[in-house]
Amino acid sequence: MMRIRIICLWLGLFLLAGCGEKKNTKQSFDPTIPVEISIIEQTDDNSFRNYVGTVKSEMKLPVSFPLGGTLTGVYVKNGQHVKKGALIARVDETSAKSLHDAALATLNQAEDGYNRLKQVHDEGGIPDVRWVQMETDLEKARQTEITTRKHLSECTLRAPQDGYISMEEHTTGENLLPSAPFCHIIDMNKMVVEFSVPEKEIGVIQIGDKAEATFPGLDNMTRTIEIIDKSFVSNPMGHTYTVKARVPVENKDILPGMVVKIQLSLSEASGIVVPSSCVLTMPEDADVWTVKNGKAYRRNIKVGGFVKNGVVVESGLESGDTIITVGYQKLYNGAKVSF
């Protein structure tokens, strides 16, 4: 009996020792996640966007032969400055002249017949029905002559206003299609920069905003440009909007087609700025990880424009809040953190 009691006592002590070791092992597990933090402060900075655009003429007027024809002469060169009314080119006018000559002969005949019968009609010598027919034939002849004269004049192409010629190479004998642009008249004093803006950013761009334009083709020359127009209909392919900015006219080296790098300065951003790398973007909003009482919590924020140090937070954070900048990938709400 004494031996049984001793064995039971040893078994009890062994079980107590095992439980104590298990308890100590559980207490030694530390779930704390190491992170790096940053304390939020108010800041003032200039917000900006970067885009790439192209120089274009604000006025690019197409000039064409309405009826087409065979080219018989070109009297200007590409890049040449012309005055309003200057001769640009001609097409073969043989057919147009023949039609006009025939229409003119018909008109002269109708006017002669009209003048001969007018006195007879006034004296009651012909019925009104025949006289009305005579007036109708005369008016038809007049309209035909006007139309054929216009077609004859359209065989000669003249500059509709002052500007510079922009055209492809043309040769005598070339067959031109009706209304196909033969050349364009460009006003070099009205140059603009066109660039595309994503739909999420078009709302913050206003007419009158200033931008810094850099021209790589002119040794990175910079000029200040001003927004003068923005479209209200998006491009269905890229969901972007076209924005136009006026180019200063004093520099004649800026030519159509040049590539422009644009840095658009928006209104001054004053408030909370956080590093863009720690902002978790979602389809409709954004979040950051914050620290409170040694634990991590995910917080929803509303972001504004970009600045050189990060992004502006419009709501969701206050000065003095602590955010996690590094190590947030393994976090969950309520996780213990160390820094």
Contiguous uncertain segments of 5+ residues: 19-28
Radius of gyration: 41 Å
**Silhouette:** elongated
Largest sheet: 6 strands, antiparallel, barrel
**Count of DSSP H/I helices:** 3
CATH homology superfamily name of the largest domain: RNA polymerase II/Efflux pump adaptor protein, barrel-sandwich hybrid domain
Number of domains: 3
Helix content: 10-25%
CATH fold label of the largest domain: OB fold (Dihydrolipoamide Acetyltransferase, E2P)
Percent of residues in β-strands = 35-45%
Can you tell me the CATH architecture of the largest domain?
Answer: Beta Barrel
CATH class group of the largest domain: Mainly Beta
Widest beta sheet: strand line-up: 3-12-15-14-13-16
Q: Structural class of the secondary elements?
A: alpha+beta
Mean pLDDT reading: 83
Would you count the extended β strands for me?
22
SSE order, one letter for each helix or strand: HEEEEEEEHHEEEEEEEEEEEEEEE
Query: In angstroms, what separates the terminal alpha carbons?
Result: 61 Å
List its traits.
single chain, 339 residues, alpha+beta, Elongation Factor Tu (Ef-tu), domain 3, OB fold (Dihydrolipoamide Acetyltransferase, E2P), 4-stranded antiparallel beta sheet, 3 helices, 24% helix
Structure description:
This protein has helices at residues 2-27, 94-122, 128-153, and strands at 33-34, 36-39, 42-57, 60-64, 69-74, 81-82, 87-91, 156-158, 163-166, 175-176, 181-186, 191-198, 210-215, 221-230, 240-246, 259-274, 280-281, 286-292, 295-307, 310-315, 322-326, 335-338. By secondary structure, the chain is α+β, with helices and mostly antiparallel strands. The chain folds into three domains: 33-45 and 270-338, Beta Barrel (conserved putative lor/sdh protein from methanococcus maripaludis s2 fold); 50-59 and 189-268, Elongation Factor Tu (Ef-tu), domain 3; 64-185, OB fold (Dihydrolipoamide Acetyltransferase, E2P) (Beta Barrel). The strands form four sheets. It has a six-stranded antiparallel β-barrel with strand order 3-12-15-14-13-16. The chain is elongated, with a radius of gyration of 41 Å. 18% of the residues are buried.
